Amino acid sequence: METADCINSIKRLSIPEMLFHRQQFGINSRRQRKCVSVFDLSRGVAWNPMRMHNMVLSVGPGTPAAVCMQKSSKSDSSSGEDDFDEEYLMGEEEEDYDSHVDEEIVVENNEVGNTRNDENDSGSEGESSEPDELFERRDAEHANSIRRSHEVAERALMEWMEADDVADDEIDSNSQRQQHVPSLRHAGCINTANWLTSPWRLSLCGSSTGDASTENSEECTSQLITSGDDRMVKFWDVRNAMGTSNLLGGGKDTVCPFSTEVPSESPDDEWNKLCSQASVPISGSVIPLATLYTGHRGNVFHVTPLDHDPGKVLTCGADGFLRCSDLISRSSSIVISPEYDREDQNLFLSPGGLFSLRPGMCFSHHFVDTHNGLLCSERGLRRFDIRVSPSEQQSRSVLSSDTCKACAVWSSDSVNSSYVFAGGASANVALYDLRMVSDGQQTSKVVQLYRPRHLDENASVSVSGIDTSKNKKELLISYENDQIYSFPIFPSAGAAGPTVDALNFFAKRMEEEEIVQRELCSYGGHLNRYTFLKNAKYAGPNDDYICTGSDSGHAWIYEKNTGAVVSFLNADHSTCNGVVPHPTLPVFVTYGIDSTAKLWRATVPVDSNIDDSPLGRAKFYHRDSCYLKSPLIHDWAYCKERLSELNDAEEDVASFLMPDEIPTSFGMSDGGILGGVYCHHRKRDRDQAPFIGNDMKNLPRVLRQNIFSCIVAHECDDEEPVRSGIDELKRRVSNIRLHFQANQRGLQVDPDYPWQLRARAAYLGSKTNSNNLRNEDTDVEYGDPADLIPSPCDWIPFDPEMISSPLKYGLDFNLEDYESFFFENYKPSVNAADEYEFRPVLQIMTPPRNKRKFDGQDLDEKSKSGTNCDDFACKVTPVTPSTLASPVQSLDDEEDEVVKALRTPKALHRIEDTVSLLKDAGNNALKAGFPSLAARRYDQAIQYCAVVFLKFPQGTMDKVSGQNPSDRILEWSPLLQLLVSIRLNLSMVLLKLLEPDPKKAAILAMLALAELSPFTKERGKIRKGSNLMDIHKENEPECTYNATKKWEAKTYFRLGTAQYAAGDYSRAVESFEESIKSTKAVDKDSPPEPVLLRRLAEAKRESSSKNKKQRKRVL
């Protein structure tokens, strides 16, 4: 969205204003008859990618409510009130609390006498028939601790529920009585969450029975229900986190990932002062409405409200029961019990048989109409009717498979809801007709069968989530051990959908021949293997987004049309199991292993001074964003070793892996051929809680780790996290990274060639430096060609100009089967000529060859521009391809062999041009006063050099490889000269950053020395081997020795400067002296540079002073 659009959206009636009216006057109330429409609410917070990038944490650790209320609760801890410490009610405390809650369930169910409504009287008899042995055993185990932890954890809620009733008109008085808490907390993992979209809502009056009142169903809901391992259902009102309370800036919860840095700490004192003075609830607080005990004996996996029965919810869980709980009567009754399964009736009627074997778990349930529904369980997909007793429920499955992991009821304008999509422990998902039964069987007929192209029927995957779009024309399937796929639903049926006759025809055809429908496209860069509860859902008014959880604890929100990740949220310390979008607003609930759920909302920057426009993002990227070292800079030796191991593997399974795709050694174990699979389950640190918030800046790092984890799993013959293939995962990940780079730098992605990034035409010619004191000639221009260059792994494997068999790129829509559906629903209608300034990558990456610089002198003159560089003149005769191409310009006849050796393929020339462009751009950024930007460009240039000089699985990289990397590193080519020059430049820049890194600067200089040593060991010879004992080539031209010696002198100077900055003065003296020796080796009469002599004297003085201090300490 452009800046003007952002301003216009702010001028509209805001969400806080709208929800404030609703809170004060309600819908169709006596005070005001005017309703606030859902359309106005949706328009108030626009669903657009730029706001989705700035997703803020509304409820969770680090918010103003968590900080301020935790402080106040600690001050009152002597009175016994609950301490709302955010994330660490886990471990042993959770286990004890869970047991107490389970005991409380038993006691309360006995107290209420299993009271049920008249329509469910028979069900209570089924519940009372449960054996007493289980209850007596639990009584004996936990008799000494009944209610103890429950009273501590729920004290605040009980105080609110014991308050006197308040009249509906006493709004102000009622708002003061509402108890606010800083988190959506349970006593264990949270496995399910749902927005209360039924026609009824819970009253805010605070009655002791949890009064439920019927309200207008078109009202924008702000109430949630959650449940999990503690087997309780909790009701919450999150209106204060959705907009009635203004967000407070300055903390980690409101960071704009592409416009601001994450602060080191939150302004706690300022927040406490503002919260104490404010008359409105604290930003990020929630209202606990009621707690309902379900009676389950296992973890609750799914909870839904009964639309036409106020106060009632339906729950299912690991104990195999489907239960109906009533908030008003405080009772819980059984709808489906494993005791009455026909197939296992003898087992359950035997002595002690009820729980002698584990009953099949129930995963989720879905209503077909008001009273009838479907239950997904390990025993299949079962029908249920909430009006009949458990003994009268149908026990057989409507599917032929044994397990049903997920389902979604489907209907269209022309048919009713007698159809269901269902899937289990395989790659198949089928559309079943619930009205018809297959011939000779007791299961429903299959109308259509869906399976991704890259998964066979026997693939070891299982369905973890199914969802359908609002218009019922698209199907979304999430797989455990794989990714997410979308399928068109009867794409040729028209707007009204297929008729009943057409569906009957499809069912009959499926009986004759199995026809599998393939996916339209796939989404994902996440991993889904550790838990079976991860769902995937559509989000947005037009289902423009897809959201899901992941093993790494992140919530991923993808843009459906592009496959880009628009929100990347660190939502859980271990695993994020679910992401639930609000029905109309860009507000999301995430839950997982943690004992608290989190609430997120998309918004414009909280700080009005932040410029989040494309130009503002480019400015931040150029001027203010910190430099993060790539793995190749962080640990070159580790990456080289890992690539070599992959290259030497017996199976060429990693031909797609490039040097810049190796993650850092941090987090990798020592087991296996490649150090083991990266473990996404991060260990908890009790002293310091991990960061929970918008983690978009770490998206490339997590993607790199996910790909490498898949490769290592394949190498170690371990279970592969993504069964559809690494090539498909790499294609999706590259597409995500390219969009990330474009969003980070305010650019756009070419939909036809994603690696060709484009600048926005409206901002071309703008300078990203707003400091008027600087010379405009040194400013960095928006859309600089260096900003348009992607990472090597996101360009080279997909460009046919670089490799002979390129991989597929982008989303790879299945146009062969669904071309008309794609152009109708997905193809963007934006005129590219109006939005883009098209400059092909071929032109960007191929500057005129006579303008290329290989002498390394451009930084030697930067002291004239006021950058105070620590450099000295080291003039080297340029050796360019244009010079080598002309025998007339050769220094002698022997150089003709060098000319022949350095003639490289076209792809290698393009890499040379790219490296040269990045180096020049880094030099310009340094002259403009942007050392972090210069470091990033030098870093990227080294990544491209690694493609040429490192040994890695080359596969189809024939156009780039052409020559063995070990032989190419032993030729003094322009590209090798560029690599040495860039290493030295980056070594210098690392000392000029806000947080200097002299250790890494010294390592870069030593790597440059290692690359120069084969040429500087002896005149006329190039040596090789670990100790340079072997001769690689004789009769090397004299100019090579002289040029490399001059570079060696400069490299020793850089090494000495880094060692001096690190306080290693004795080694700095040695390096400076070696620099003088290298200069004398070329020309004995050449005097050392003054800056070198000055640094040598300073190093000797500091070394002498340090030695004296050490001797005094010894004495």
Straight-line distance between termini: 70 Å
Rg on CA atoms, Å: 33 Å
Structural class: alpha+beta
The amount of helix comes to 25-40%
- Helix count equals 34
Multimeric state: single chain
> What gross morphology would you assign?
globular
**Low-pLDDT segments, ≥5 res:** 1-14, 19-34, 77-132, 142-177, 344-357, 666-688, 771-777, 829-903
User: Could you tell me the mean pLDDT?
Assistant: 75
The total beta strand count reads 37
Biggest pleated-sheet summary: 5 strands, antiparallel
Strand content: 15-25%
What's the short version?
The chain contains 34 helices and 37 strands.
Architecture overview:
The relative contact order is 0.07. Helix content is 34%, strand content 17%. The longest helix is centred in the C-terminal third of the chain and has 25 residues, at 1090-1114. The radius of gyration is 33 Å and the shape is globular. The strands form ten sheets. Strands 1, 2, 29, 30 and 31 form a five-stranded antiparallel beta sheet that branches. The chain has a five-stranded mixed beta sheet with strand order 16-17-18-19-23. A five-stranded antiparallel beta sheet has the order 25-26-27-28-32. It is α+β, with helices and mostly antiparallel strands. The termini are far apart. α6 packs across α8 (133-142), α30 runs antiparallel to α31 (998-1016) and α33 (1065-1082) runs antiparallel to α34. It contains 34 helices and 37 strands.
